[in-house]
Structure formats: C-alpha cells, structure tokens
Design a protein that fits this description.
The complex is a heterodimer of chains A (about 110) and B (about 190). With about 110 residues, chain A is an alpha/beta fold. Helix content of chain A is about 40%, strand content about 15%. In chain A, helix 2 runs parallel beside helix 3. Chain B has 6 helices and 6 strands, in the order H-E-E-H-H-E-E-H-E-E-H-H. In chain B, strand 1 and strand 2 form a beta hairpin. The chains are: A alpha/beta (about 110), B alpha+beta (about 190).
C-alpha cells in the first residue's frame, strides 16, 4: 500500500513531505525512544510516535521508514517540517492515540 | 516532559517551594565538547540527607507527604537516557544545587525547548523571587537578572504584561545572538 492510499483511508493531516507520498508502506512500528526506533524499526515501516522534534527526521531517514504519523494531537515543529520536506519524508499529524492509529492501519490492511 | 525547559521550570518551582529568595537558572550549551549542562541553584532551606534520598526516589512517599513532585526523578531519568547524569548538592539552611549534564548530540536527548518561557513563567508567578539566568553557548555568555527589571518598576509588586512580553523577546534575541556569533579569528 502506498502512503497516499493510506492517507485516503485515515483521518490524518499531512504537514510535510508530499513528495514522498508514493512510498510503499511495509508494516508499521510504534515507538518514542529514538535510539530504540533506530535499532528496531524496519525499512518501509509506517512509524507512529509522539516525538515531534527534528531528530525524528534523522531517524526516519536512517531507517528509511515510509512515513511518520505524530499521534496524540502533538504539533510538529517548524524545523522538523523543513527537514522532512528536504528529505521527502511524509509526516502526518493525528489527534488519535497510537493504539487507535494502529487499529485504523490494520483496518486498512497494513500488517 | 516534552523538552528540557519544562524540567527546568519544575525544578525551579521546587526551589521556590523551599523558600528560596534567589533562584539561579543556568543553561550551558557546548556543542564543541558535546555537553549540555543545566543547573538550578537556590538559596532555599536545603534538604537533609534523609529528605534528599526521598526526593531522588519516585516511590518514596505519597502525594500528601511528598513536598516535591516527581521533578527530580524525571530529570534524572532523562539525563541518564541521554548519556548523562544528575547530581544534587544540598545543605540545610543554605540551599540546593541541582546539576544535570547531558550528552549534547545523544539521539535521545530532548530538545532544550523554550527556556525564555521558563524564565518568564517564573517571573509572572513569583514577583517576590529574584531570578538569575545564565545562558552560555560554547564561549559566549549572556546574563539576565530580574533585579534589573524591578529597579525600573520600583512602585509595582508585579511585572506588567508588556514587560513580560518584552523580557521574553529580549531573552530569545540574546540567546540567538550567542549562538550566531562567529568565534574570533586568532
């Protein structure tokens, strides 16, 4: 499933990285401790987190996740958006908690 | 807590609860040596060794007997997660110094956040307390003392809203200035 298809089925607000909306989503990872995300998330994962500072873009780029969803209504910082646009990493905001987002993604067929 | 400025606010509030009349907030960013140092130094009533042991533990006491929140254990956890540590030096009747050191480039180090908001929040709620703020970025230093502001408004026992707004901008501009200065060419 592409990021753009996922977006059509979920209530998300895209704040950055539209140029990466063609990325293929392969599974998902939920985590907020960046060092752990770096070592455990897999390439192509959709990454759900509550972190919103620019280090998330560095981690996303390193792991090559397909997109980031920032949960719990947390606003993504301007510096993060700027970096994500540079690196074509889609970032979405959602008011939903991570568990609700996980249920939504499973419902869309992301395994 | 989402960023370090909120931790600082929490610890400064502890200092004020401990009857401090002067709270010194210190922020030292040293990218060149990969260090970030934060300190809250107060002249409050200090802590006994027994009390100190209790504030370091998140499970020590119930809310009814706990005189401070979870500020210290949370800050300690954040420091340790970021390749650093937290040390407390306290003397009864003299005051308390809490120093947090973090690894500047550690991936799990939270952002510093809005330190200017921390200082202005403290000012707006505690006009009677003097706040000293030291901001260092490598070799560049900026100092701010609330006494300088009070000296201008001697007839007021509060800071007018527009003054607080000005202080916020003033702090932010000066912090940015320390960061942007090019080191002197030898």
């Amino acid at each position: 499933m592409k990021v753009s298809e996922m977006l059509a089925g979920a209530e998300l607000i895209q704040v950055a990285g539209e140029s990466g909306n063609g990325n293929e989503i392969k599974g998902a990872y939920i985590g907020d401790l960046l060092s752990l995300v770096m070592s455990r998330a897999l390439e192509g994962n959709l990454w759900i987190t509550i972190q919103a500072h620019e280090n998330i873009v560095a981690v996303a780029s390193l792991v090559e996740v397909s997109a980031i969803v920032v949960a719990e209504g947390i606003r993504v910082e301007a510096g993060t958006i700027e970096k994500a646009n540079e690196l074509d990493i889609p970032i979405f905001e959602s008011i939903a908690p991570a568990f609700e987002l996980a249920k939504t993604m499973i419902g869309l067929g992301i395994q | 807590m989402r960023d370090l400025s909120l931790h600082l606010l929490d610890l400064a509030e502890n200092a004020i609860r401990a009857e401090a009349t002067l709270v010194h907030v210190l922020v030292e960013e040293s990218p060149s040596s990969n260090r970030l140092k934060l300190a809250i130094i107060d002249n409050g009533k200090g802590m006994s060794p027994e009390f100190l042991a209790s504030v370091k533990s998140p499970f020590s006491t119930t809310r009814t007997t706990r005189k401070v929140g979870l500020g210290i254990p949370l800050m300690k956890a954040t420091a340790e997660r970021s390749g650093g540590n937290l040390t407390i030096d306290s003397t009864l009747g003299k005051g308390t110094t809490i120093i947090t050191e973090l690894e500047y480039n550690h991936i799990d180090r939270p952002p510093l956040g809005r330190v200017e908001d921390t200082i202005v929040s403290l000012m707006s709620f505690h006009h009677g307390i003097d706040i000293h703020f030291t901001y260092r970025y490598d070799a560049k230093v900026f100092e701010f003392h609330t006494e300088e502001i009070k000296a201008i408004y001697t007839d007021l026992d509060y800071y007018p809203t527009e003054v607080l707004a000005w202080v916020k901008t003033y702090l932010l501009e000066n912090m940015e200035e320390q960061k942007s200065q090019i080191p002197n060419q030898a």
